[in-house]
Prior knowledge:
A: 167 residues, two-stranded antiparallel sheet, 6 helices, elongated, disordered N terminus, B: 182 residues, alpha/beta, five-stranded mixed β-sheet
Amino acid sequence: MRRPALAPLCPALAPLCLALALLWLAPAFTGDASASQPPRASLTGIERQVMCVTCKIPLNVAESPQADRERAFIRELIDGGLDEAQIKHALVGQYGSTVLALPPASGFDLTVYLVPAAVVAALAALLATLLVRWRRRGEGPAEAAEEAPPLSASDASRLEADLSRFD
Amino acid sequence: MKRRILPVIAALAGAGLVALLIYGVSHQAASRTLDERVASGHYPPAPNAATELPILGGDGKSSLAALRGKVVVLNFWASWCRPCEQEAPLLQRTQARLHQMDGTVLGVADLDNTPDSRRFVRHYHLSYPNLRDTTGEFAHFYGTDQLPESFVIDRRGRIVAISRGEIDESFLNHALALARSA
């Protein structure tokens, strides 16, 4: 039985693999609780995910007194130690679900998700149909030649005579 | 027949998208139907008066309908809005006047966070009840698209005067006289 070509490398790579595995598992062994906790929320991260509720534009591009109040409110929540999900939950409690840039997938808001998917599906179907038609059109003349009506006896004999002159 | 199916489906899909767009735009736009009816003297009933909203600075909910039989100055405001700050002392003075005639100012904090709204109420010593419109839907029924806006409602629950913008003494005197006589 032949040994695999990479087999001689295994003893050399083993310490490296072990070291990488230990590095990966280190937080679990050291009891580092922060590794299992969600990352600390940031204002810029949340700004991208929520709306200025009166100006109806994303908070990260909104410049208005309402937007400033929303930012201040988010900062207070971040300082209070809340994570991103908790902050978004608190924002919904204060301003309703319209504060979220991506609304919940229920009720009329479901159209936000369904319409783009339906448009993409419709375009894909249209493209597929057009491709099939285009291919058929490409094959068209050959089929037409195959299905051409048979020649009459006089035309056939004339064609034979013409062809024999080229032989 | 088969060749016609694709254009028909495409046309239907296009029409559906246009209908969706029209619905979205009309749903977002503020209605001025109330203003037209008030201007013509056909005082409309206050829309969605039974909608229950959370009480600012308290537990539970309340509604405009709970004040039926009283003259009500319904005022939409937000703590970040400068004209709302300007008119707050006038509204508080009006509350004192209305209290004597069994009426009230009813504030509705529109899309404003609770801590800021509470600070606003404390700062201007507002003694009238305030509710929170956390989704903006209640304000939407009144065609509210700028703050502050005020609606004077008579004892029968009809809107007799509208101010889209900061109110002043003369508007209130005229509107309250209308509400009492209506």
